[in-house]
């Protein structure tokens, strides 16, 4: 099935844009960051030292983790029958998520689920490594960017405590599936664009590739 990969650093606009794009195209929207955040939330709930990859992997081996698609055509993750939601934007999760998502066992777990979600449906999937590692063969690959100042302002406007530059640095420098611009990705600078402007720019790039709004 078709996969539209949307990668980029924090507050580049991935979630807002991917959700709107998926609606326009009639595709399912998959937010992979939510999965890493939910796993981080669970690891913190268990009181595990997030700096110890072995302890993080251990904590997960006893948890039941289910990923799927809700009736509204958006992805969900359920851990031990709970769907963490509001807690995923907590500053504690923001602080620890880059450490937890660098653990190979965590990446393997999430990657397998992401590939399964796209097996029998068209998806817009956002994250850090969707175009580079999860679906390197998809021809529909975008990298959203914006200046660090603008991204910081956007997060502040949302009222979240989030050290996005520290997170971006960790995400870009880790060994496993670092944040990077895939060689064949189409880069869209969202700094001066509205959300609808970004969606329009992506749709304009998709049209010649045969992907059109329904
Ligand atoms: O919304 P924001 O860009 O701030 O973050 P997110 O997409 O919710 O992702 C939270 C964290 O999960 C990132 O900082 C990465 O550490 C991790 N992540 C990842 O490693 N790989 C992905 N495909 C998506 C997220
Ligand atoms: O998912 P990611 O962290 O990349 O970004 P987001 O959560 O979609 O966007 C962060 C904030 O910036 C949201 O409040 C968006 O409404 C806003 N934004 C914007 O105002 N203009 C854009 N071109 C992109 C995002």
Description:
This protein is α/β, with parallel strands linked by helices and 214 residues long. 45% of the residues lie in helices and 16% in strands. Strands 2-5-1-6-7 form a 5-stranded parallel beta sheet. Strand 3 and strand 4 form a beta hairpin. Helix 1 packs across helix 9, helix 2 crosses helix 4 and helix 2 packs across helix 5. It is globular, with a radius of gyration of 16 Å. The mean pLDDT is 97.
Question: Mean of residue pLDDT?
Answer: 97
Small-molecule binders: cytidine-5'-diphosphate
CA radius of gyration: 16 Å
* N→C terminal distance: 16 Å
- Runs in which pLDDT lies below 50 for 5 or more consecutive residues are none
Along the chain, the helix and strand elements come as EHEHHEEHHEHEHHEH
- Overall geometry comes to globular
Compute the number of strand runs.
Answer: 7
Going by helix content, strand content and strand pairing, the class is: alpha/beta
Strand order of the largest sheet: 2-5-1-6-7
Largest sheet: 5 strands, parallel
Salient structural properties:
binds cytidine-5'-diphosphate, 214 residues, alpha/beta, two-stranded antiparallel ribbon, single chain
Briefly characterize the structure:
Helix content is 45%, strand content 16%. With 214 residues, it is an alpha/beta fold. Helix 2 packs across helix 4 and helix 2 crosses helix 5.
């Amino acid at each position: 099935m078709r996969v539209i990969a949307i990668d980029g650093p924090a507050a580049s606009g991935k979630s807002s844009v991917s959700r709107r794009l998926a609606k326009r195209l009639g595709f399912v929207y998959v937010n992979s960051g939510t999965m890493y955040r939910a796993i981080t939330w669970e690891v913190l709930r268990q009181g595990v030292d997030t700096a110890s990859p072995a302890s993080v992997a251990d904590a997960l081996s006893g948890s039941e983790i289910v990923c799927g698609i809700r009736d509204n055509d958006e992805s969900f993750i359920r851990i031990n029958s709970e769907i963490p939601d509001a807690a995923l934007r907590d500053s504690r999760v923001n602080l620890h998520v880059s450490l937890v998502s660098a653990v190979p066992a965590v990446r393997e777990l999430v990657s397998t689920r992401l590939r399964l979600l796209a097996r029998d449906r068209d998806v817009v999937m956002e994250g850090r490594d969707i175009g580079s590692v999860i679906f390197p063969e998809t021809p529909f690959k975008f990298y959203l960017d914006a200046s660090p100042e603008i991204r910081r302002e956007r997060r502040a406007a949302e009222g979240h405590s989030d050290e996005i530059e520290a997170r971006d640095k960790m995400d870009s420098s880790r060994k496993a599936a670092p944040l990077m611009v895939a060689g064949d990705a189409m880069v869209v600078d969202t700094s001066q664009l509205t959300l609808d402007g970004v969606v329009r720019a992506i749709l304009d790039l998709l049209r010649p590739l045969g992907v059109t709004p329904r």
